[in-house]
Structure formats: C-alpha cells, structure tokens
Write a structure and sequence with these properties.
InterPro entries: N-reg_PII-like_a/b, N-reg_PII/ATP_PRibTrfase_C, UPF0166. With about 110 residues, the protein is of the alpha+beta class. It is built from two helices and eight strands. It has one domain: Alpha-Beta Plaits, CATH 3.30.70. A hairpin with a 7-residue loop joins strand 5 and strand 6. The chain is globular, with a radius of gyration of 15 Å.
C-alpha cells in the first residue's frame, strides 16, 4: 500500500467503555477502518484525562478507574478519510473527532525498501 507524501490524520478521542456497532467502540472503529482498506489504525490508551463532563479518568493505583481515555489514530489520503467519516458517523454517538494535514515521511511494510 502506498501513501502519498501529503495525507490526513484522523484522531478520535473516546472512552474505554464507549460502545458502537455492538462492541467496544475502539474495536468497531478499527474493524471498520480495515474494511474500508485504510492504511492502518492505532489505539492509544491514556493514563489520565477528562472530557466534556470534566470528570478525571485515571490509572492511579488507589483509585480504580473504568472508562480510561482512548485515542484512535488513522492516517491516509484525504478522500479516503473523508469517506470513512461518513461510516464513522453512522455508529459513533460520543467522542471528539479531529482532522489535520500531515506529511508522511516514511511508510514501509517490514522488510521492504
């Protein structure tokens, strides 16, 4: 798969307990991105964060927290990301979605030049 030098970064901020399409939302997003043949998706788990409720979500030992913050990142061509946004809107009800233009410096599958 070849990604152009200029691409778009889709960043989706959600909670660990959020659900979509009958499963954890982060999982649903990654599976839909794969079905849409996007270049890849990464889920990042946050140790501390807050959202619109201003309630802190943390991994501190003395305070068990569920619903930790997650960020799903996807980089691909702008038209492919825009098409994916329509799919995302059909099953995502909560969260923050951002887009930014990025410059891809390197994208190589393992073992290739």
């Amino acid at each position: 798969m070849r990604i152009p030098t200029q691409a778009v970064l889709l960043r989706i901020f959600i909670g660990e307990d959020d659900r979509g399409d009958g499963r954890p939302l982060y999982e649903a997003i990654v599976l839909k991105a794969r079905e849409a043949h996007l270049a890849g998706a990464t889920v990042l788990r946050g140790g501390l964060g807050f959202g619109h409720s201003s309630r802190l979500h943390t991994t501190k030992i003395l305070r068990l927290s569920l619903d930790l913050p997650l960020v799903v990142e996807i980089v691909d061509e702008e038209h492919k990301i825009n098409a994916f946004l329509e799919i995302l809107e059909s099953f995502m009800t909560d969260g923050l979605v951002t887009l930014e233009k990025v410059q891809v410096l390197q994208y190589r599958p393992n073992g290739t030049d």
